[in-house]
Amino acid sequence: MPPSKPRTRLALLDLTPNEWKIEKLVPGGDGFLHLSDGKSAFASGALPGERIRVEEMEEHGGYLRAARWSLLEASPDRVEPSCPVQSECGGCDLMMLDYSAQVRAKQGILLEALQRTGRFEQLPEVRFVSSAEHYGYRSRIRLHVGSGGRLGFYAAGSRELVEIPGCIVADPELSTALIALRDLARRYPRGFEPLSEIELRVAPAGPRVAVHLLPADRGFDLSSAFAVELARRFNVSVAERASDPSQDQRFPLPGVELRVPGGGFTQVNWAVNQALVHALLDATQKSGALRFCDLYCGAGNFSLPLFARGLTGLGIEASRPAIGAARRAAKEQSLSGARFIAGDVRTELERLPRGERFDLAVLDPPRSGAREVLPALIRRAPRHLAYCACDPVTLARDLRVLCDAGYALEGLTGFDMFPQTHHFETLAWLSLGAGTATPH
After folding, report:
1. What is the architecture, at CATH level 2, of domain 115-131+267-432?
2. Which of 249, 277, 251 is nearest to 263 (CA)?
């Protein structure tokens, strides 16, 4: 998606072409085309190959955006959305696109980012792992809280709350939990007032349903009748308060089990996440790596399976609750030698002894990428890098830095973690070229 710039909204002029033919989807999920005058143009919700009539547009300096448009010629891949509020809710922006076409579009989005932002002219073959489940796959949803205890998602590009009857891409148990929360809102009309958001999560190995509360400015009284009733029905945690370790949710991984505290991060599509972890383990085995460093390790989604395979090393993560859960999981499952450090990832990486070496560095940064840790990582020069990213643009930016430092991009696999949306995960595998980027 292009960066936000000052914009001018224009009524269409006679000299402005008002019929656009969409060329492709680009990072951010918008339809894109080049106009005859060379300008770039974007239309949210328009699909590749479609002709649209632009009824109102916004001028953003170097590009145009359709603010309002009507469909003249539909793509053969356009389908009727399965959700009654898809056009209002900001979540499933590709639900009107046939699933196989969604996967093709995401491959194109990844290539676009790598070629445009990363300036890669030659790339390894890009594989893409589809999701077996196109609906009911989400194990986690975050709901915004509106006045009167209304619960829903924000409309695209706004803070307008869209109440949802349920969520067809979420695990059915989460929709059942949403019904229970609405029942509590009726019984305790002011109970939700201190909250800005509520996260619901279901775990395959239990405790089954957890509710994580994010208060607004005011605090949340855990002794209130509403809070007591909520805790009676659900496994409840609040913001950054330490949660009871006995209430950690458990998620199966290859050869090991992940423990996640209240509010801890997990991938939303657990079947696809397991495929992602398997891919990392397979590549690691082929590389012969024996010692690793897992940066942004969370509760151990990659670290714990690597330890279970007999590798040694450590994980670094800023979230202390996540590191606490990783340590508990390692101890419970007798993963000897497992080491986890809580702290700023860049700072802790730089603090490691200069002589500490790794065959493999694993990176799973937030959407903003790993730019801040790359200089320290390059100085340590691990032979292999596995970079897992949820944003193709920041991934492409960081891969360019690594390849300019002597790494070769050897493998790229997309994982459709988020069917019905433009989002996906990518696993990139890099190896250090002979005689380049030596440690110093």
Report:
1. 3-Layer(aba) Sandwich (3.40)
2. 249
